[in-house]
Write a structure and sequence with these properties.
The structure is a single chain. By secondary structure, the chain is α/β, with parallel strands linked by helices. 38% of the residues lie in helices and 18% in strands. The protein is globular.
Length: 226
Amino acid sequence: MMEIDFHAHILPGCDHGSDEWETSRRQLRLARAAGVRIVCATSHFYGHQISVESFVEKRQRCYQELMSHAPQNSPQVLLGAEVLAFEGIERLPDLKELRLQGTKVLLLEMPFHHWSEGLLDSVEALSEDDDFHIVLAHVDRYDRKDVENLFHMDRVFGQVNADHLKRIFGMGHLHRWIREDLIVAVGSDIHGTETGYEDWITCRARYADDWEAIMKRTNDWLKGLV
């Protein structure tokens, strides 16, 4: 089973993650050492700041710089985006260009303020569009009941960050969501290199069965089996 980091900020200079190619190079080495074979490069996309076209062009430049300096035997890098949800996002031109490379998956970040009815309507509209499968970024950061309301929509699932999954107390709902097949991916959400993949390694050892189940789902998603 290939280990897949579904959420990482490794493209040099593409957002506030990696600041330069040397940082990205270290990130890839850390990922490889942790057993990761695929890293999804999910730089932040803020629709009020940049067009999809400009973002995709910038992302490609940063990717090419990364690949020109990538160490040997690096994990495979798939291009995607961490897309901040907003009212009317379902009408954003070229939104499909932000899906994870080779899939219909859109990694959607919900805002950290009140979710308006208009915003929820937009998320639901996306969930009903056959061109998208919605994965909510770091569902561990949001109110549990708010997330569960989104899970009731069509084709809406969750990604959890390793640094939250490793916690023993107060996170029982995450394990319930895993067992209900609602969590389909784990992310390092790595920005720099300070803690590397320590949480990733801890989670794999601590929650071996749940970890294997999630990784199987992620592999299936990338293969187009779901």
